[in-house]
Design goal:
flat; Chorismate Mutase Domain, subunit A; 80% helix; mainly alpha
Length: 87
């Protein structure tokens, strides 16, 4: 059995990567918001969002699919809210 402290250190490393990638995602979301503003486009593109969730569903392992989709529901809500701040 693995030591809990070792497992927690592994989680800490993963969290660092997640935060870095999420920050990068928000940087791109801001650029998309500015593009949408310049081109008078709505923040929500339901067709794009549905396609993204479908793709994410296929990328996730079956055991984690439900949780992965919940995570992306949150990520997409945050991204849309962030874009609204820049439009």
């Amino acid at each position: 059995m693995e030591d809990i402290q070792d497992l927690r250190r592994e989680i800490d490393k993963i969290d660092q990567e997640i935060v870095k990638l999420f920050n990068h995602r928000l940087e791109i979301a801001k650029k998309i918001a500015l593009y949408k503003k310049a081109n008078n486009l709505a923040v929500l593109d339901q067709k794009r969002e549905d396609a993204l969730l479908e793709k994410i569903s296929t990328l996730s392992q079956d055991e984690y699919k439900e949780e992965t989709l919940k995570l992306y529901d949150g990520i997409l809500k945050i991204s849309k809210d962030y874009q609204k701040k820049h439009i």
